[in-house]
Inverse folding.
């Protein structure tokens, strides 16, 4: 009888630990277009491997990418990195990014969610905050 009780408790604990997972990993393909004046706005997972704009630029594919940009709410201006010139800005949780392309790319992004992440809203300059919620 003791063995059956142990098996039931073990299975119940296993189900509870799976049901309340604190983090979820995923992979998504983001189709980046070069049609017309295409501005490809995208979000990144809260946990990702991108330290700065250069890492995004290189991962998308430098030959197909014109630039990677973001809106800086503090200075009320765009920051752009084109692989050589501009601001190689730091990637931050909850920010929206834009890529312009010379050719279309199906970009694969991997990462995970962070249920404890907080996004700061800045009240400066023009008072515009361009936020992005990950998938």
């Amino acid at each position: 009888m003791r063995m059956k009780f142990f098996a039931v408790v073990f299975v119940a604990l296993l189900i509870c630990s799976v049901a309340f997972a604190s983090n979820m990993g995923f992979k998504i393909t983001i189709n980046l277009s070069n049609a017309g004046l295409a501005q490809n706005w995208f979000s990144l997972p809260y946990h990702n491997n991108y330290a700065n704009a250069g890492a995004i630029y290189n991962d998308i594919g430098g030959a197909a990418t014109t630039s990677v940009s973001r809106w800086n709410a503090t200075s009320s201006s765009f920051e752009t990195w084109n692989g050589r010139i501009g601001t190689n800005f730091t990637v931050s949780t909850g920010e929206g990014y834009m890529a312009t392309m010379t050719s279309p790319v199906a970009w694969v992004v991997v990462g995970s969610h962070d249920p404890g992440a907080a996004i700061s809203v800045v009240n400066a300059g023009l008072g515009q905050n361009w936020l992005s919620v990950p998938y």
